[in-house]
Amino acid sequence: MGIHTDILIIGGGLAGLTAALHLQREGLEVLLIEKNEYPHHKVCGEYLSNEVIPYLQWLDSDILTLAPVSINQLLFTTVNGYSIKTDLPLGGIGISRHSLDNFLYRQFIAKGGTVIHDAVLNIKMEGESFVTQLSSDDTVLSKHVVGAYGKRSGIDLKLKREFMQVRSPFLAVKAHYNGKFDSNLVALHNFSGGYCGVSKVEKEKINICYLADYQTFSKYKSIPAYQENVLYKNKELKKVFENSQPLFEQPLVISQLSFGAKEGVVDHILMIGDTAGLIHPLCGNGMAMAIHGAKICAELLQQFSVGKIRTRTELEQKYSSAWNYHFKNRLKTGTILSALLRKKSLSDLVLKTLIHIPGILPAIIKRTHGKTLTVNTE
Q1: Does CATH place domain 3-40+96-167+257-367 in 3.40.50.2020?
Q2: What pLDDT digit, counting tens, does each position of 258-280 carry?
Q3: Model-level pTM?
Q4: What are φ and ψ of residue 305, in 5° steps?
């Protein structure tokens, strides 16, 4: 017979959980599939822009109760010792995905939500319904499917998404540390072939997460060797590592990161979060974008449920249009910045320009961030 639901969400990260909470609040029947148990760590910069805090509070999920770190300044440094510091226009918080995802999951469950810990093998549409096959041999029948399963998945291969055919030159490494670091600061330290974000999260832990060029990384036999020979060339970054003690037995590592916009709708599946598009970490806004994208998707699905949107085609067109309007230019800006800052000569030139014209940096930050989210209560 299978499991029946109005909306199936595949993936229980920030985007998936936010969409689930929103749809649940609107009285829609929603089922979430997540392969991992909570809580768990994820490779992430763990800086969340304040633009989404009021929306999460509207969802009755006040993450300020988790005692995150308040962050209002950005520091950027280069290998050659240039640096610039500026205020963050909206500011944000430092919060670990370990705590945040688990909190949203617990909120969803407490309100009667259902989460199945399983993996998806296949999705197909039959008539106006989706049939989703799980690895446990269960089948889910739903009116809609929302893809929130992250940066890269076997599902993408089955859907024949173009980015899966292109080999990415990037990998990312993340771990938590104990040590001294300014609580109100998020730092971006440039090094040859990449850049590293450093900021505090709850309980005085320091999150260090860096993006590296695989070609450079592969020359070294271990992560410590790579860090000592490449990252430590940036003296400010070297200080951070030398004055910190790791809290993980081994850092988390992910590879094959595909940045930029992907398709927002694939085979009638609405994609949200990193599944729809991944912004470069140096922009510091991936978490807020995931939550914002989930909000857009949930609002349109609610409008479809009450007949304000009459057809699936209209729903998909409205979602693609809204996603591109809010996020496409942000992704382009992130791609351009990454290309400039990964090259030593260009990164120094960019920073010299920012030092002499300090108003440019806040303008760049605004291009990769949005305004405070408002909620449509109609």
Answers
A1: no
A2: 766 788 999 999 999 999 887 76
A3: 0.92
A4: -65, -25
